[in-house]
Amino acid sequence: MAKSKIPVYDIYGIIPGHTQQDLLLSRFAPYVREHRHLHTQHGHSFYHLVLFTKGAGEHTIDFDRFTVQPYQVYFMAPGQVHSWHFNGDMEGYLVHFSPAFFQSFLADQHYLDRFGFFRGISKEAVLQIPAAMRKDAVALFENMLAELEQPREGGLDMIRMYLLQFFMQVERCCGNAEKQQVPRQKQLLLANFQQLINKHYNTIRLPREYAELLYITPNHLNALCQDLVGRTAGEMIRDRVLLEAKRLLVNEALTITEIAYALNFQDNSYFNRFFRKNTGMTPEAFRKQIHH
Questions:
Q1: What is the C-alpha to C-alpha distance for residues 74 and 268, in angstroms, rounded to an integer?
Q2: Measured between alpha carbons, how far is 43 from 78 in angstroms, rounded to an integer?
Q3: Is residue 72 located within the same domain as residue 165?
């Protein structure tokens, strides 16, 4: 399909002339002033996080809306889409880093998968930093900025350590305590399932087919999903198809028929029934709501 959908930025293209390999770190206020496209839906091919220290407004991640509050932090995994609508001046910190940024530093290539806020589930990725942690959180970001402003040997590794420290502190204070006790093997299996869905949602719709790819039984897969995310495997597949449908509907250049075809539905009416059953509105109504 030739027509474009939501724009997806890479870590170099989002800022003209940016050359820092695999990392972008900035205070939030100047970043917002320079990037007026933030109010429109867009995606990233990199990990992305923001710690707000001042400001108000609203931001939307994968069509879930959140009210901006001071000392709120939100995380995005590659592939998610979002838009921001701010009221007044904004302050805080922003970090972009590529999937490769930690790969040369950590022996465990799946280390970031242990953090619930990087699973790509928007409602688990927006967290409020408690008062007792705020001073330390700000200090970590200031230390990271200092490493960029006064480059020294090992500076990027220091930034990696500060980031990991921040991730672990957030997970300890704000993460789901029950999920933190989930065995590593189960976390990896769920992450692999989510990766397979992202890769094959357009062609594979049955849980048993994903179970075969994971070398487990359908019952095992379903129990895993219910235990870790409170959803069946079928619901997770359906949710991913629905999310892509919403992303495509943002692009007014695409007709509903073209979107149905792109998502591998048998016909336009089948797609309409699917969308309405799961959202309570037609694709046309959703599109009008988004562009209202």
A1: 36
A2: 8
A3: yes
